[in-house]
Amino acid sequence: MKVKFVDLARQFNSLSAEIGLAISNVLESGNYILGENVRLLEDKLAELTDNKYAIAVANGTDALIIALRLLKIGPGDEVIVPVNSFVASAGAVCAVGAIPVFVDVDSNHNLCYHAVEAALSPRTKAIMPVHLSGRPAPMAEINEIAQRHGLYVVEDSAQAIGASYYGKKTGALGDIGAFSLHPLKNLGVAGDGGFITLSCPHLYERAMRLRNHGLIDRDTSVEWGYNSRLDEIQAAIALVKIQYLDEFNASFKMCADYYYAQLSDIVEVPVKDHNLDPVFHNYMILSDKRDELAAFMCQKGVETKIHYPILLCDQPAFKKYHKSELLFPVARELNAKKLSLPIYAELTTKEQTHVVESIRAFH
Ligand SMILES: *Cc1c(COP(=O)(O)O)cnc(C)c1O
After folding, report:
1. C-alpha 44 to ligand 1 mean position (Å)
2. What 3-state DSSP class applies to 92?
3. How many Cα atoms occupy the beta-carbon half-sphere of 179 within 13 Å?
4. What is the value of pTM for the model shown?
5. Protein residue whose Cα sits closest to atom 7 of ligand 1
C-alpha cells in the first residue's frame, strides 16, 4: 500500500464540476484581473479571519513583503523571525532590504518568546511569529513584548488559515496577517495566491495600491509598488473551496485526533493546549530514531517529510546574517527528531491506519 504525503488532485477531483464551472465563467466574462471574484473573495477572507479587510495578492511571500512595506520597514531595520520556518519568512524581510534576526523556537516549533527579548536591538522594528504547521504561536507574550518595545507584529499565517488562539483567529492577532493560497496550504488554489489581513483603513488603502504598481487611478502611481494581483481564475477557485474550508479543517483535525490516539504511547506527539485550535497543516511527531523510522516507513510505502530540514540560519542565502553566538539549541534538537506524517482532508481511514501500523511495526 502506498500513502502519498499529499495528493492535491484528489481534492480538485472531488470538486471538479464546481471548479470547472467557476473557471469557465471567468473565461467567458472576459474579466481576468481585479474583478468581481477577487472582491467577493476578499470579503469572505476578511470575515473568515475576523478582520476588517483582506487584500488578495499574488502569493504568500508577496503578502509578507507588502505587509513589511506597509509598516515602512526597510534598509537598516531588523525583524525577529523564528529560526525554523519556510525560507519565505526570512526571504520577505531581505526583499525589503531589512535584516532577519533569527530566534530559537519552543517545544511547539514556534517562536520562543523568552528568546525574543535577547535578540532585540535599537534597530528592531517588528516581530514575525510564524504559526508553524497551523499551530498558533504564543501571541499574548509576543504582543506584550512588542507593545513594551514599540514594535510591530506581522503574523506569518501561511500555514494557519482558520486556526485560532484563545478563540481569536490567526491573522487578526497582530498588526498585519499574511496568508498563502499555495496549493499545499489548507485553502489552496490551482497555482499561486495569497492575501493580507488588517484592520486599519489607511493601511488598507496603501495595500490596495502597493499590490498594483502604486496606482491610484489608471495612470498615476503615487509610490512604487508591485504587480502582485491574484487573478480572477484563482479567486474563483478559492471561492468554491472556501465553502468547504471548515469541512477540510475538520478532516485535518479528525486525522490528527486519530494519530494522537494511536501514537501517543510510542512517539512524541504535538503538545496539546486547549486554548489553541490548530488546523494541523502538518502533523509533526518527534522520534530519537527519526531517520531509521522515515526509512522504514518509506519501505512500507508511506511518504514522510521534514519541515524544515535546514534551519534558516544555516541556509546558504542567509549565512551573512548569522551571528555565531546564537546556537538555537531547541531548534537544533527538534531538527534531529521531527518528522511530518501524511495529513490531508482526503486521506482515507485505511491510509491513516497504514501510517499508524507502519510506525507501530517499527517500534
Ligand atoms: C508557504 C509559506 C509562505 C509563502 O507562501 P507562498 O504563497 O508560497 O509565497 C510563507 N511562510 C510560510 C510559513 C509558508 O509555509
Report:
1. 21
2. helix
3. 33
4. 0.97
5. 60
Residue 322 has pLDDT above 80, yes or no: no
A 10 A CB-CB count for 143 gives 18
* Gyration radius of the chain's alpha carbons: 20
CA 326 to chain centre: 25
Identify the residues whose C-beta falls under 6 Å from ligand 1: 59-61, 85-86, 88-89, 130, 156, 158-159, 180, 182, 192, 194
Q: Please, are residues 340 and 304 in contact by the beta-carbon 8 Å criterion?
A: yes
* Amino acid in position 348: T
Q: How much of the chain, in percent, has pLDDT values that exceed 90?
A: 96
pLDDT > 90? residue 323 = no
Ligand 1 centroid to Cα of residue 88, in Å, is 6
Contacts of residue 293, defined as CB under 8 A and 6 or more positions apart, other chains included, come to 287, 339, 359, 362
Domain architecture of the chain: domains with CATH: 8-242 (3.40.640.10), 245-362 (3.90.1150.10)
Residues 180, 161: Cα–Cα separation, whole Å: 9
Residue in 57, 93, 159, 284 to alter for ligand 1 test, most ligand atoms within 8 A of Cβ: 159
